[in-house]
């Protein structure tokens, strides 16, 4: 898949008000091809409204939303052509097979509906063996995979999912996680909302934190290499440590009077040896800095509901 330069999802100063009451305030963010970006926040933070603006279900009151370079308002057709979505619990005909449900959707959308073509989509989401079983016999995880097949019918460049892991068992969550990561590796831009913070950490490259309708934080969970994770170091002298790590090719950021370095799971000893060899004192090493949930609570307040 060849993608144009620039982000596939671009939101610029987007606001949404209902009857004069603002629910989303001037948010800006982007999602590039090959990225999985998570949208998190408390209940009522504006996550679903933001996704509705991105998918064209709600026009922004102010600001711009572009998909694949096209405005979802003034260039709606070309913008939505690039988009596949799972925005709510998918409803299927229980008495029809998975294949026939997919065929119904394809025909309604005037898309290719031949058996071979549709079986290809079901194979892509791991449902080929269940293609001729009635959907009433599907587990929740299988229904979610069928919804993913529906989203892929348009061969999208962008995939937007609202709470895709709700109600799934651990095996189904892992399956969905692996499929989303593979789709990103194939060049899709994926934007999802979820309250399952542990899974957001596993699947997302970046997270955006909404609170009170405002974008209050953004955090990269991985470095440029897929397995890189942030490790926080308290070191002395700080400036010298930062220079040494950058010169050695590791990406670093300043944080909380320390240094975050993005490294692979086996590289911590190498980083420590490198710094000690150059007379840098290591005072503390904190992998993942307490995890996403701890950082989420620090941003939104420990007394507020974590799930949102």
From TrEMBL:
InterPro entries: AAA+_ATPase, ABC_transporter-like_ATP-bd, ABC_transporter-like_CS, P-loop_NTPase
Matching Pfam families: ABC_tran (PF00005)
Key word ATP-binding present: yes
PROSITE patterns: ABC_TRANSPORTER_1, ABC_TRANSPORTER_2
EC number, as in UniProt: 3.6.3.41
Keyword annotations: ATP-binding, Hydrolase, Nucleotide-binding, Transport
Entry annotated with the keyword Cell membrane: no
Domain of life where this protein originates: Bacteria
A GO term, aspect molecular function: ATP binding
Residue ranges of every copy of the ABC transporter domain listed in the record: 9-237
Entry's family note: Belongs to the ABC transporter superfamily.
Official protein name in the record: Heme-transporting ATPase
Organism, scientific name: Sulfobacillus acidophilus (strain ATCC 700253 / DSM 10332 / NAL)
């Amino acid at each position: 898949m060849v993608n144009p330069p620039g982000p596939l999802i671009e939101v610029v100063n987007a606001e949404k008000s209902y009857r004069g009451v603002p629910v989303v305030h001037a948010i800006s963010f982007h999602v590039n091809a090959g990225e999985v970006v998570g949208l998190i926040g408390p209940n009522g933070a504006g996550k679903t409204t933001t996704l509705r603006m991105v998918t064209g279900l709600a026009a922004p009151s102010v600001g711009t939303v572009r998909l694949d370079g096209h405005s979802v308002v003034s260039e709606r057709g070309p913008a939505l052509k690039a988009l596949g979505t799972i925005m709510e619990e998918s409803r299927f005909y229980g008495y029809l097979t998975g294949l026939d449900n997919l065929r119904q959707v394809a025909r309604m959308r005037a898309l290719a509906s031949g058996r071979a073509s549709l079986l290809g989509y079901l194979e892509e989401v791991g449902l080929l063996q269940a293609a001729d079983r009635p959907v009433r016999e599907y587990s929740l995880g299988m229904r979610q995979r069928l919804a993913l097949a529906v989203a892929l019918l348009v061969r999208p460049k962008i995939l937007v999912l609202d709470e895709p892991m709700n109600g799934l068992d651990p095996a189904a969550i892992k399956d969905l996680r692996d499929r989303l990561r593979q789709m990103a590796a194939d060049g899709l831009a994926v934007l999802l909302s979820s309250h399952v913070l542990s899974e957001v950490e596993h699947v997302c490259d970046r997270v955006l934190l909404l609170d009170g309708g405002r974008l209050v934080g953004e955090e990269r969970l991985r470095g440029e290499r897929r397995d890189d994770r942030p490790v926080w170091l308290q070191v002395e002298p700080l400036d010298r440590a930062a220079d040494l790590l950058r010169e050695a090719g590791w990406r670093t950021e300043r944080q909380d009077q320390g240094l975050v370095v993005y490294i692979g799971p086996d590289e911590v000893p190498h980083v420590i040896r490198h710094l000690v060899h150059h007379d840098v004192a290591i005072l503390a090493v904190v992998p993942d800095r307490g995890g996403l949930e701890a950082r989420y609570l620090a941003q939104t307040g420990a007394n507020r509901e974590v799930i949102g």
